[in-house]
Design brief:
Largest sheet: none
Shape: elongated
Distance between the termini: 39 Å
Oligomer: single chain
Number of strands: 0
Order of helices and strands: HHHHHH
Radius of gyration: 20 Å
Mean pLDDT: 87
Helix content: over 70%
């Protein structure tokens, strides 16, 4: 009887664990902020809050396309970069590379959600928290693990291995 673990049957298991942790983190930030809504202090004047809010919005507007660009670069590197060691297990190599890609893109989404929580804790209203957390949630959805991207990495690595063997 063949014994395989859950992670080898589902190559995107760890990538989905990372993504689900980001979703849980965003939900916890919303929940805790709602729980402590009466605790809100005014650390900055309204003019300063507007300046900080504008900075956060501009950062988020820039971070989403930068994340898309970084993800594209990572995916292309995953497909074209030769492995450091001999390729014995293409699936393991592709899984490790793709998990790193998902981790980087989801980390940026945590940063975007963190902007909302920080602004709320600094005394901004709850709308900024909702907007920035929603944008982070949209990013989590857009940059979720996709089996086609993973399969493209495996196909490219297999082709790279074939080319190296023919030399």
């Amino acid at each position: 009887m063949k014994s395989t673990s859950f992670s080898t049957q589902h190559p995107l298991f760890f990538a989905w664990i990372i993504t689900s942790n980001v979703v849980i983190l965003l939900c916890i930030s919303l929940f805790l902020s709602q729980k402590n809504i009466h605790w809100q202090h005014q650390f900055f004047s309204p003019e300063d809050l507007i300046l900080w809010r504008t900075g956060c919005y501009i950062s988020v507007i820039l971070l989403l396309p930068i994340t898309n660009l970084l993800r594209y670069i990572f995916l292309r590197l995953n497909q074209t970069m030769p492995p450091l060691k001999s390729m014995q297990n293409l699936s393991r190599l592709a899984r490790a590379r793709y998990t790193l890609t998902v981790t980087v893109s989801q980390s940026i989404m945590v940063l975007i959600g963190g902007f909302g929580a920080i602004m709320f804790l600094l005394g901004d209203n709850v709308n900024t928290l909702y907007i920035l957390t929603s944008v982070a949630g949209l990013g989590v959805f857009l940059y979720r693990p996709k089996i086609t991207e993973y399969q493209n990495i495996i196909d490219a690595l297999a082709q790279l291995e074939t080319q190296n063997e023919s030399k």
